[in-house]
Each structure stands twice: as C-alpha cells, then as structure tokens.
Write the structure tokens for this entry.
Amino acid sequence: MKCITEKSEDKIKDAARRVFLKKGFDGTTSRDIAREADMNIALTNYYFRSKEKLFLEIFSEVFAQYFSNTIEILNKKIGIKEKISEMIEHDFDMMKNEPDMVIFIMNEIHKEPDRLFTGMSHFKQLQETYFTKQLEEGIAAGTIRDLRMENLLPLIKCSVEFIYLAKPIHKKLYNMTDEDFEKFAETQKEHIKEMICSYLVIG
Amino acid sequence: MKCITEKSEDKIKDAARRVFLKKGFDGTTSRDIAREADMNIALTNYYFRSKEKLFLEIFSEVFAQYFSNTIEILNKKIGIKEKISEMIEHDFDMMKNEPDMVIFIMNEIHKEPDRLFTGMSHFKQLQETYFTKQLEEGIAAGTIRDLRMENLLPLIKCSVEFIYLAKPIHKKLYNMTDEDFEKFAETQKEHIKEMICSYLVIG
DNA sequence: CATAGTTTTAAATGGTTGTTTAAATTATTC
DNA sequence: GAATAATTTAAACAACCATTTAAAACTATG
C-alpha cells in the first residue's frame, strides 16, 4: 500500500531533525517541533514518549550518517592518494548539504559525552577498513610515511570541516559573500589535498 | 583600598563565564549563574540588566581572548617556521587551558551570526600583521609557496583545534584515557608542524 | 548617630517549559 | 455496521523560566 502523505511519526521525526540540527537540544522546544511538523503538541510524546527520547533517536541516526560514507570510501579498492582526494571531496559535499551536522554533533557530545555514546558500532567498522591495511603495507614498503590511522584521519577531516565550522567568522573576517566563500573553500580544498598527500607519500 | 573578596559584579561575571562556556546560552539559566556565583538571583539583573546583556558582554571578551594572543604571535619578529611552530604550541596550550572556548564560540556564532559580530576590531588587526608581510616577501623571493594568509591560517588553527573539539569522539573511538589522549595530541602536534612547514617552505 | 545611597534579599510576576489528560475523531476488525 | 483500537485534539498540569518589586540590610558621609 502506497502512502502519498508521510506518516505522522515520520513527519514529527523529520521536523525534529531539522529543528534540533539548527537550534540544538537546549534551544529547541516541543512546541518548535510541533509547529515545524504542523501537528499537535501532544503527538511528540504520543509517538516518542519524551523530547529526550526523540532527540537520542535522531542523534544516533545523525551520528551514524556522519560516519557511514566515510567507512564506505575507506573500504574502496583504490589508491591511497585517490582515496584521500575522494575523502576530502566527500567531506566538502557533506558540509555543503548538511551545514549544521558537524557543529551539532560536536556541541551535543561536548555538553554530555556519556549520554550520547550508546551502542556505536561504527567505531569498530572505522578501525577495520581496507585503508588501514593499505597504510600498513605502504609503511612497510617505505612509500608511505609512518603514520597511524587515528593520526591521519583527523588531519583530513579537520581541514575541511573546520573552515565550514568557522564559515561565519571567515565571512565576517574577510568580508565575503556566500559566493566568495565557496570560491575560497575551493582554493582551500586544493591546498588541503596537495598538502596531505605530499606529506603522506614519501618521495 | 585593597579588596580581598571579589566584588559582586565580578563574581557574577566570572560565574556566568564559567557556566555559559560549559552549557551555552540556551543551556544556561539565570539560576545556574546565581548558584555558581553563590548570590541572589535578582543580582544578575541588578548588575547586568538581563541575561542577554550579560552574555553579550562575556561573549565579546571570550572572542577577543581567542584572537588576542594569535595577533601577538603573528607580529613577532621571528622566522616563519618558528612562528608557525609557536602558533601551534599556543593553540595547544589554549585548548588545554580553555577546553570549552572554541566549541562555545563556534556554536554561538553558528546559531546567530549577526547578533554577535559587533565592533570586532580584532579583524583588521589580524589582517595587518607582520606575518602577512613575511609571507609576501617569501613568496616574492620564491622560498614560500604562493599562499594567502586567509588560506594558511585555517590550516594551522584547524589541525589543533579540531582534535580537541572531537576529543570525546577520539577518546571513545580509540578507547583512550585522558592521559592517552594527551600523548596522542603530542604526536599529532609534531605531525601538524612538520606537514604545514614542509608544505609552505619550498625546497 | 542620623541620613542618604548602595547593595542584597525574599517573594511575586506573567509567560513558557515538557508532559499529561480525557474527550473527540478516525481507522480497523469481525 | 457495530465494536474495538488507534490517532488526534484542546485544555490543563505543575515546574521552571527571566525579570521585577518593594522592603530590608548594609555602607558611607556629614
């Protein structure tokens, strides 16, 4: 049976995701969510028992999304340089499509780390990728600098994600329009690729 | 006349700074601040008129602090490599001493960029440093890669600040204690220095 | 010590919060 | 199509929010 109209439960969840991502847990009220979903206030609790439960459900989905594509790319059977390039491209796209995601995750985890780490299976997946094997082989062969996965990954992620995290500051600092900023980001992207690859690959 | 005990106004401001940095504007109540300062609730409004006014005052101080030492270092009469190294060391120290600062600034600006940028004189100071001149000279002489200040600065800041922003994730991801994390951060620091300097300096 | 000014207090303000209730409406089942 | 279950609604709940009030306590000055 096809459903043209979204089910109420999903409508609320989607609306809540949008509002939570934009305003964070503390900045969001149950009434904000109901208004965004265009539904009665009581329904939030009817379907999800509490604001907290709804939030936790959404957070773990967003957190999984943050890692999922990364794991996919890390497992691709392509060369290291190409892989790093693709990782960086993917991160750029992610920051463009989901500009609120990273700051949301960082901020919520920062406020209460313990409550949010429950059954995170992405973690093991992230450590056991083909990329880790590639790195080890390259290091053994002397073509890749001796660098552990957990040191390399932040070097990649930070460069891309940070400039978007600090986008409002950059815009203000150098008097940029949104268009200017995207140009700036493109330039930055090439620097990042070049810098990381030339550091990683020996000779 | 010496004051052994802090004045009430300062006590409130200091307490508010601590709470705001930890929980953000939305997560902080006037009662939280009064409790932290060990004072009556009404005093917050007696001295600062409103929670919003108190917040804005604190935010602009924190934001200035975030840039102040950076500007100082950029104006030092030392070599580029040494300067980058010092910048990185400074950022590490800052993240250790004020672990809440960067995520606080990023998050508050992200939520409402316009309200927080009022009379930020640090911006011009940041663009007109001795470091900019050094870069231009190096580029002209062919010893430094053609890289604009606004592209280089994020490369430095991101690497350091991001790993601390993602500290809870790293700890969870690689099962680290706080001690383990500090060791990890030290290793990362050396990679960052080496990577940025070897990219920037030609030959 | 009286008085004027400043600081602190307990209590109350009106509004908003997350959540619940119980009735009304719609959908499903036999 | 009547009975049962699931969904939606308006209204209410106590708790808490930022802020204000007006009286009390304190300090300084003459």
About this structure: The CA atoms of residues 20 and 28 of chain A lie 6 Å apart. Chain A touches chain B through 48 residues (CB under 8 Å). Residues 7-49 of chain A form a domain with the Arc Repressor Mutant, subunit A fold (CATH 1.10.10.60). The radius of gyration of chain A is 20 Å.
